[in-house]
Amino acid sequence: MTSRVEETGSTFDESHDPESEPANGGKRVRRLDRVVIRFAGDSGDGMQLTGDRFTSETAGFGNDLSTLPNFPAEIRAPAGTLPGVSSFQLHFADHDILTPGDAPDVLVAMNPAALKANLSDLPRGAEIIVNTDEFTKRALAKVGWQADPLDDGTLQEYRVHPVALTTLTVEALKETSLARKDAERAKNMFALGLLSWMYHRPTEGTETFLRTKFAKKPEIAEANVLAFRAGWNYGETTESFAVSYEVAPASRAFAPGRYRNISGNLALAYGLIAASKQSGLPLFLGSYPITPASDILHELSKHKNFGVRTFQAEDEIAGIGAALGAAFGGALGVTTTSGPGIALKSETIGLAVSLELPLLVVDIQRGGPSTGLPTKTEQADLLQAMFGRNGEAPVPIVAPASPGECFTMALEAARIALAYRTPVFLLSDGYLANGSEPWRVPELSELPDLSVEFATEPNAPDGSGGFWPYLRDPETLARPWAVPGTPGLEHRIGGIEKQDGTGNISYDPANHDHMVRTRQAKVDGVSVPDLAVDDPGGDARLLVLGWGSTFGPIAAGVRRARAAGGKVAQAHLRYLNPFPANLGEVLARYDKVLVPEMNLGQLAMLLRARYLVDARSFTQVSGMPFKAAQLAAVISEALDD
Amino acid sequence: MTDTAPNGIKANGALKLTAKDFKSDQEVRWCPGCGDYAILAAVQGFLPELGIPREKIVFISGIGCSSRFPYYLSTYGMHSIHGRAPAIATGLASSRPDLSVWVITGDGDALSIGGNHLIHALRRNVNLKILLFNNRIYGLTKGQYSPTSEPGKITKSTPMGSLDEPFRPLSLALGAEAGFVARTIDSDRQHLTSVLRAAAQHQGAALVEIYQNCNIFNDGAFEVLKDPATRDAALLRLEHGKPYRLAPDGEEIVHDVTDPDPTRAFALSRLTEPTPIGVLRAVPRPAYDRQLNAQLEQAVAERGEGDLSALLSGSDTWMVR
User: Fold this and answer.
1) Which of the residues B15, B303, B308, B319 would you substitute to probe the A interface, choosing the one with the greatest number of A C-beta atoms within 10 Å?
2) In what order do the strands lie in the sheet with A332-337?
């Protein structure tokens, strides 16, 4: 999701096929500039794993890529049903791309449910690879198909490749000792092998991966490798696949450096470890399992040799409570959760505001309200983060715009928390958390210095030799952080209003007014970078402004609008509280401001209130990210009226 | 003061603190006659005995009358939010095993709004000393019944009598796998101090229930246990190695606080006539914080100190030139 080459948004068709040449064995090879593939099957079919592997092969090959895993909240919904369909979409290209793709060029459907659930997303001419073994009367009936769509004309607009995936897999594994049922389970690797052949993907990585993953069950490892190779050989030899495709590495799209593929949650976990290292403070994570945030807990728990303590608490409240307790003791305290967890943590966030201790609150947003859509994406917690506490309780908010940026913004959240002694929200979402992209691995020398000085000496201005826990730094308004164990600085803090300076309990009206305004002024004064605006011609009258994970689709939509001649500027907010200092000036420069959000207009509401600007909302709360085409249409509409 | 550092360590290295050293400069603001004064005096009197400098001691409380306690001690302290002190203290104790961490809570704070955190802190065996001031009433909110109020209690919120079956805090703690469980009384300074001593010596979570008189909203709740005329019959003073009977004609049992089987301790926790005081159970088992930190050391021993550069790169990278 780097940005240099224009994404025109053209669809998969022959015009994308500038050169065709015969390959070995009489098969033809076509060159494409980009492809969108969607793997779909039952929740238990291993589609996420298949997609992950194809992604790794693709990343290693050097394409730019973007992924969209999409799965139900149920671990194993009833087999063969529509609610049980799990899918993984991957967009890869020889140039830089911004989204996982609006519509798949290729659908791999492991059963009738997977075909039916995804068919409406396919453009005419798309290729469909179906596992014919699963197209039984019973399986068809389960999804309400009376006739078999493979031969009743339903698929006549598409290029269909019927493959007996299960039979072929079992056949390939007949020499092994595996029972038929176990052999069948390797069919996803057969499919992966076939697709790897079709798109000239390197295969060594997957074979190594399988042998490592099943190191304790070598016969399963070998069976999966066999199935994977059988799928590849099937493509190579069978008549039904006459063409394979090349998508060249996207070397021009990337700045020089070392790259890897990374998901948002992994990048976030690494960002937290880096923040711990850069601050010299041990990382303490207090967390309670919740989708889609749990992977951060899983990841951090693996890295105890970095001095990382992970605490799986009894509930969301204890998770943040423990993190705050650790912060009192001088740790980099973090809690990770999703929207429902934030609701439970609100009181403790308020306490952290009052205690003025550093604390990171990571919200991987999902569909709401209540339990909502646990595995789907949404950005409707902005106002909860902004205002969801009793009293005047301002909290800085940052939001990464892509999976890789979760790393950077975790460091930024830590910088703000440590420098200003405040809880900080990091708002990610399900799309960023599970989606992945190529990421340039930073050199350690590029990472910011987050070192912190604890208070060590008495500071009372009255010369008493005492310690005033709320005597502020005049620049940042941060109070001193004196950790237990420091002799002579023993002090008590609490959620009751305290006198500025001494920290003693105070019910004095003027002091309370002063403290409320001081806490607000401290957050308002947090230093954040100015908002950068992308306006190539410098003469756009329309600004498209977003925040968070909508960056990719908005940028892709803007590119399309520009390709069609539209003059449009784009800016994206990574800092939601405080807003960048130049935001008001930026907004005032444009006649129209369009704000696409995956909520009912929460940022737009803040902009209208703060800047008296007539920001127009474009909203979608479907649990799915925006599509580039959809935003391109909205942008041209806004340009026209 | 010339030869003593602010933390009480003398020039010759010896730590010499007195009760006075543990008094903060804040005015104590409980109602006159409240049992909390006696507990505060006993704790301030006991802390020097720990031999731990003030800066290494932390008191964390929730919300309620008792939870003002940390303000009156010259250690580090945090007056947090209702019910959450055990969770906050868990984070502190787990990341700072060098500290002596105490939790001050009440019957409403620990057993009502914070019940979940209490049982999990006990089950995990975090190295916390939890002092539960039980006055069987809500004081700070002015007199509603609490989770330890007797059934039928007439209060502001229960004009026709409360309907709830009360918790027995010690039974609850034993059910939550607590390794150390004890009970004492606010007015019996000597006994209170001896129980604090035993709790402090215990490695891991310790729950001490302190019967505390609220002279405003529930005066005399424990009078029968305090009145010289009745207390000898009403109390069962438990001592390790000494015999007791669960009933006047019952079998004589030698009290063994180290009995790994909690059955007898549980029977004692349900006994009301007489009411046992003292240590019911003191069975050591590995503390959570020690084990957590041991895992960190083990990880470093097995894999070496974390290498951030190697972590960020992972195993699948490619170069763009």
Assistant:
1) B308
2) A309-312, A283-287, A332-337, A359-365, A423-429, A397-398, A575-577
Q: Which two tokens stand for residue A144?
A: 């309400």
pLDDT tens digits along B261-287: 999 999 999 999 999 999 999 999 999
B71 Cβ contact partners less than 8 Å away, ≥ 6 residues apart: A492, A494, A505, B24, B26, B77, B79
B35, B214 in Cβ contact below 8 A? yes
Q: What pLDDT is stored for residue A25 in this prediction?
A: 55
Cβ atoms A432, A264 nearer than 8 A: yes
For residue A594, CA distances in Å to A188, A339, A399, A604, A635 come to 43, 26, 19, 9, 8
Average pLDDT over residues B88-115: 98
Rounded Cα distance, B33 and B17, in Å: 28
Counts for chain A of helices (H) and strands (E), in that order: 20, 24
Q: A304 contacts in B (CB within 8 Å)?
A: 295-296, 298-300
Q: How confident is the model at residue B8, as a pLDDT?
A: 62
A507 interfaces chain B, CB cutoff of 8 Å: no
Q: Which residue has the higher pLDDT, A623 or A20?
A: A623
pLDDT-derived band at A80 (thresholds 50, 70, 90) equals: very high
As a residue count, chain B comes to 321
Which residues in A lie closer than 8 A to residue B302 (C-beta atoms)? 305
d(CA A475, CA A52): 47
| Contact assignment for A304 to B295 by CB distance below 8 Å | yes
Total beta-carbon pairs less than 8 A apart between chain A and chain B: 209
Mutate: best of A96, A213, A273, A305, partner B, most B CBs <10 A: A305
State whether B308 and A306 contact (CB < 8 Å).
yes
What's the gap in Å between the CA of B69 and the closest CA on chain A? Answer: 10
A488 in reach of chain B (CB within 8 A): yes
Q: Residue A13's pLDDT band (boundaries 50, 70, 90)?
A: very low
Residues B183-228 have pLDDT tens digits of 999 999 999 999 999 999 999 999 999 999 999 999 999 999 999 9
Q: Write down all domains in chain A, each with its CATH number in brackets.
A: 25-242 (3.40.920.10), 259-446 (3.40.50.970), 533-640 (3.40.50.920)
pLDDT band at A308 (very low <50, low <70, confident <90, very high): very high
Write phi, then psi, for B210 (nearest 5 degrees): -115, 115
Contact: B320, A324; criterion CB under 8 Å:
no
Q: Does A92 touch chain B (CB under 8 A)?
A: no
pLDDT digits (tens, 9 = 90+) for A232-280: 999 999 988 989 999 999 988 889 999 999 999 999 999 999 999 999 9
Q: Chain B closest CA to A284's CA: distance in Å? A: 7
B79 contacts in chain A (CB < 8 Å): 492-496
State the ipTM, two decimals: 0.96
Report yes or no: A309 and A283 within 8 Å, Cβ to Cβ.
Answer: yes
Name which of A288, A282, A395 is nearest A333 in CA terms.
A282
Domain boundaries, chain B: 19-313
* Domain B19-313 superfamily per CATH: Thiamin diphosphate (ThDP)-binding fold, Pyr/PP domains (3.40.50.970)
Residues sharing a CB contact under 8 Å with residue B103, sequence separation 6 or more, in sequence order: B59, B60, B61, B85, B86, B89, B121, B128, B129, B130, B131
Render pLDDT for B135-167 as a digit per residue (tens, 0 to 9): 999 999 999 999 999 999 999 999 999 999 999
Residue B315 has which token pair? 């195993």
DSSP class of residue B109 equals: I
Q: Which of A246, A185, A238, A187 is nearest to A62 (CA)?
A: A246
pLDDT of residue A107: 97
Strands A106-109 and B180-185: unpaired
Residue A150 confidence class, pLDDT cut points 50, 70, 90:
very high
